[in-house]
Design goal:
12 helices; DNA-binding transcription factor activity; Rossmann fold; Peripla_BP_I; 3 domains; six-stranded mixed β-sheet; about 325 residues; Lambda_DNA-bd_dom_sf; alpha/beta; 434 Repressor (Amino-terminal Domain); elongated
């Protein structure tokens, strides 16, 4: 039978019994999100504190360590090619740390690596119905970022694609451009479910209402720089003199690739061809010519996601809601 001391337990007592340093005990009990320690050690320290009745940090239902998995649908390599998703993940981690929420990153939707003891999940990117169901098996406290999950019953934050596209079309029209094309994106979830480009849907709807939609002006890629380059090369080759005077591009990596193809073809920007990208990451700010782009507030969206998660953790039975994050067009050298 284990003896229990009648004296108050100290950090030194916990450290000795758990086999770790006093500093490690202190940081774990104070929920230091910057501490890099494996889950077994963390749980051993917490259990030892409970066993020794360390009341200063004794956890209750309302004072439990909140640990949230950040599920990024991209791999680390893909993140480097698309700074949009990297910026969202990094700001979520910073905002969570400020709130005292511990986070664990999971890449490429590797759902098998999500720890079973997480209290919530912030999922970034695109997910199939079956993947949503798998996430649900871990926890019901899920917030989706850049994916509309409201119909599935989960909180979500999404950019305002409709008004973003509307602002792009209006900008081209204000420059006297009515022949407008688009380099759209197409991709699949990590379990091979096709993800449609909502920007293309709103683009087609907007132009059809105005009677200026031309399906032959639409080219697609996979959101990578190379696909943007190849799509623009094909547009230039297929259309020749009929190449539109304005082209909207679905994301920044594609836009950078498209810009290279236009420059190789010696097409004057913006006099012969105006270009507008979407996302407005550093990729398009520092190319030459710098690109006009729809700015999406990734930092604001990430911080809002953490706020929504904090509310969800506090009130898990509350109704889900959808937050639409506003956008605005920033004009640079690729438009007049």
């Amino acid at each position: 039978m284990k003896e229990v001391s009648l004296m108050a337990a100290t950090l030194r007592d916990i450290a000795k019994q758990a086999g770790v340093s006093i500093a490690t005990v202190s940081r774990i009990l104070n929920n230091d999100a910057t501490l890099s320690v494996n889950e077994n050690t963390r749980q051993r320290v917490l259990a030892t504190a409970e066993d020794l009745n360390y009341t200063k940090h004794k956890r209750t239902r309302t004072d439990q360590v909140q640990r949230v998995a950040i599920v990024q649908w991209y791999s680390l390599t893909q993140e480097l090619d698309d700074l949009y998703y990297m910026a969202i993940r990094m700001e979520i981690e910073r905002a969570a740390q400020q709130k005292g929420i511990s986070t664990v990153p999971i890449y490429q939707n590797d759902l098998e690596k999500i720890p079973s003891n997480v209290t919530g999940i912030i999922a970034i990117g695109k997910f199939s119905n079956s993947q949503v169901q798998k996430l649900r098996l871990v926890t019901n406290n899920i917030v989706f970022v850049d994916y509309d999950s409201l119909s599935a019953g989960y909180d979500c934050l999404v950019p305002d694609f409709e008004n973003a596209v509307h602002s792009v079309v209006n900008e081209f029209l204000s420059e006297g451009i009515e022949d407008i094309g688009m380099l759209a994106g197409t991709e699949t979830t990590t379990d091979n479910e096709i993800v449609p480009d909502l920007r293309l849907q709103y683009f087609e709807h907007d132009l059809k209402k105005r009677g200026i939609f031309h399906p032959e002006y639409i080219f697609t890629g996979d959101y990578s720089s190379m696909s943007g380059y190849n799509a623009m090369k094909k547009a230039i080759a297929d259309l020749g003199d009929r190449l539109p005077h304005g082209i909207f591009i679905a994301n920044d990596p594609m836009a950078v690739g498209a810009l290279k193809a236009v420059q190789e073809a010696k097409i004057a920007i913006p006099d012969r061809l105006a270009l507008i990208s979407f996302n407005d990451t550093a990729l398009v700010k520092y190319v030459y010519p710098s690109m006009s782009a729809v700015h999406v507030g990734t930092d604001e969206m990430a911080r809002a996601a953490v706020e929504v998660m904090a509310k969800r953790l506090a009130h898990p039975a509350s109704d889900p809601f959808k937050t639409v994050v506003g956008t605005h067009l920033i004009k640079r050298q690729t438009t007049k």
